[in-house]
Amino acid sequence: MKPVIGILAHRKGNFFTNAQFLRDLVREGNKLGAVVYTFSYRDLLEKKKKIHGFTPGANGKWLGQTFPWPDIVIDFCRVLRKPFREMRRRKDLFVYANNKFTYKWRAMKLFEGSEQVNKWSPETFIYSPSRLGKHDGKVPDRLCQTG
């Protein structure tokens, strides 16, 4: 049985934000043998355990159809509106492949812990007005605003 991957994304009508990137993800996933589709919070058919998802057609337009419930969801949605927040909070709904809310600072601290990644990461500091005033001339500084 093919793995089923849903990509949670924001859409208005049949238009997805970052549509070309999403098209590429769906196509690459299909090449690897998975069933991949994009969907939004309003596309859930929860009682039937189905999703009205979208895939790119040959002409580049999004085609809607009913898909099986995803084995895993990639959260690509950058919208923090209430319906998306409520859906993400429900731990019984989906298994997520990623945590959309990984802050830059946490990510940089995680990278610091890896010898393989740390050698490619710039020195990183939490943003503060006093830190900007103490710039020591090293280039590049990468500043992260927390929260």
Write the layout of secondary structure elements.
Layout: E1 4-8, E2 11-12, E3 15-16, H1 19-31, E4 35-39, E5 44-45, E6 50-56, E7 62-68, E8 72-75, H2 82-89, H3 104-112, H4 115-118, E9 124-126, H5 129-133, E10 142-144
Parallel strand pairs: 1-4, 1-8, 9-10
Antiparallel strand pairs: 2-3, 5-6, 6-7
Descriptive report:
- The protein is of the alpha/beta class and 147 residues long.
- Helix content is 27%, strand content 27%.
- It is built from 5 helices and 10 strands; from the N terminus they run βββαβββββαααβαβ.
- The strands form 4 sheets. The protein has a 3-stranded parallel beta sheet, with helices on one face.
- A hairpin with a 4-residue loop joins strand 5 and strand 6 (50-56).
- The radius of gyration is 19 Å and the shape is elongated.
- The protein starts with a strand and ends with a strand.
- The model has no long low-confidence stretch (mean pLDDT 81).
Short description:
This protein is α/β, with parallel strands linked by helices and 147 residues long.
Q: Measured on Cα atoms, how large is the radius of gyration?
A: 19 Å
Q: How much strand?
A: 25-35%
The portion of residues assigned to helices is 25-40%
Shape call:
elongated
Distance between the termini: 41 Å
Give the total of beta strands. 10
Helix count, DSSP H or I runs of 4 or more residues: 5
Sheet/helix structural class:
alpha/beta
Give, in spatial order, the strands making up the sheet with the most strands.
Answer: 4-1-8
Nearest-integer average pLDDT: 81
Series of H and E elements: EEEHEEEEEHHHEHE
Largest sheet: 3 strands, parallel
Low-confidence stretches: none
